[in-house]
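Standup notes
- DV: blocked on the single-chain target, sequence here:
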Amino acid sequence: MSTESANNLKAVDTRNVPAPVEVPAPGNDVDVAAQENYFNRELSQLQFNYRVLKQALDTTHPLINRLMFCCIFSSNMDEFFEIRVAGLRQQIKYGRETLGSDGMMPEQVLGEISRVAHEYIREQYDILNNVLIPEMEKENIHFVRRREWTEAQAEWVRRYFDEEILPVVSPIGLDPSHPFPRLVNKSLNFIVELDGKDAFGRETGMAIVPAPRSLPRLVRLPDDVCNGGDNLVFLSSMIHAHADELFPGMEVKGCYQFRLTRNADLELEDDLEDLASALRGELLSRRFGDGVRLEVADNCPEELVHFLLREFGLTDRDLYQVHGPVNLTRLMAVGGLVDRQDLTYSGFSPSIPRQIRTKESMFDAIRKRPLLLLHPYENFSPVTDLLRQAAKDPQVLAIRQTLYRTGADSEIVEALMDAARRGKEVTAIIELRARFSEAENLELASRLQEAGVIVVYGVVGYKTHAKMILIVRREEGKLRRYVHLGTGNYHAGNARLYTDYSYMTCDESIGDDVNKLFQQLTGMGKALKIKKLFHSPFTLHTRLLGLVEREAELGPKGRIIFKFNALTERELIKALYRASQAGVKIDLIIRGICCLRPEVPGLSENIRVRSIIGRFLEHTRVYYFGNNGRPEVYGSSADGMERNLLSRVETAFPIEDPALIARVREDLDTYLADNCQSWVLQLDGSYIQNQPAEGEDRLASQLVLLDRLTGK
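- DV (later): unblocked, structure below
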């Protein structure tokens, strides 16, 4: 890295990164497969979560949104433990340990995760208690603690407890006839110390109180019992204050909140006769998988903490004692309870390109030239408009679509059902195993089937992650295919929060390719020959490697820019290393996990890796190849991960219109010029945040795109 570039970087805490490796001297032969040239996948994911947490300290974000970043960190950590930590524990439990590319075994990784995660979570609560809450107090937003309740507030809480909480709460005393209850994954619970005997003469000494999941975890106090401002009280505070009412005649010596995180990954066999039925059964077990993490209030006595650890089969390594609520994700409710638009991001209206602004027919617009949209800056409505028009158009004969995450009540689903009711041939490929959307997708499948849509669940063993719509329309006596291909999901809500490309075309070869892909998904037979698309698990991996190798042959004239959510696939990393060794300039814009080690002399000194963290979740997947002055650009549903490239149904689609190629390159250059929302991956695995050089204007890529595409 040049001195000038280094001056643009702001140092951050790098204690929680892999130990530095011995760097080979320049000019030596460097083994692209050597373990020291790869970062650990799980620790890299933790680094991403930490970058999200750091947004809570970034005063360029509005205050309530900074609180939201703190909550998102919690949500990310929940999933990390439910899936990644649970997976490592399963490997050890069943003796299936596998060595990572970085050479770390699961037990070693779990130890390092515990060390790093404990530091991050301590810092999270420090940010909440000592930064965010005091700043919110200054804005007259108060989290009112029990010791601060006025007489009027305490009376209101008592009535709320009696009317809303007491009728639905079920305290469970622990004795031989009441064993420790089976608690739901991530539920809020209390362990209570008791003294005295109950009505039956039992002297248990201990009870568990599960907080009703139907109740809000944060409640706004009425204005008439407050002295102005927004005053919020936690459900946990109300239960603490009135725990004695749950055990009449007994003394409550202590009441302490805790939460158990369980293994939430689903394991389905490949030889299922009925995927939907099997999945319904697995969803029930998800709530009660093996424990992987215990969060406990830091004032809980040591003997009670160890009692809980024994009950859940956990050790001190899995224990997180926190100074505050055990589930900070629930603080996301603040945005809905507090009407302070001055403390949140300003609104904007996504634009609609001129190409379709004045057109009554999406089909006419797409025939004229292909359409490329970048959400959320450009509206998602043209995608739903295309389907709505197709549903009503008498010339449309058939519609086929993949659905990964969409929501059962979405406009897209309504359009598909409308088309089926109008007699069109409508087929939906629904991926039932979209993680944490399984139940919603089962409901979606039922609704579509009731409307007459043919529903297929894809291919067992290969998640259908591709984003495709195919519309067959009769025009002038011939059939023409219209296609939508995307990098994101068909979810209008996500399209307002995630950055993604939508590409619409009636290119004959692409239409034929998409038709063949749907044939493979709904029927059976050999893989069909595809002309323009790359598709996994068949051609995407090999074609991507081939294009990287082609750039390597150009040496210093080569150019590669990839934008991924994650890069972990070993063969792709090795190909990028070889291209760097050949002199190819490579920029990787990777939001989250990156196992590639950049800037190693003799190996990756021509590779730069940056992560963009901001208001929107960066989700676009783009592959750019310089191709000796004839650039090739592909949008894709696939990240640079083993699962995407080798064991899922994915697509990468060419963007061939010269104006659209130039537009994508301009977008990528905007990300590469970012000097304040970008974090640069260092040789030792740490990330350093870019800062403007002295006299240089701030350039936040998302704000630039927002201004460029919406005028705001």
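- Follow-up: The first helix runs from residue 3 to 7.
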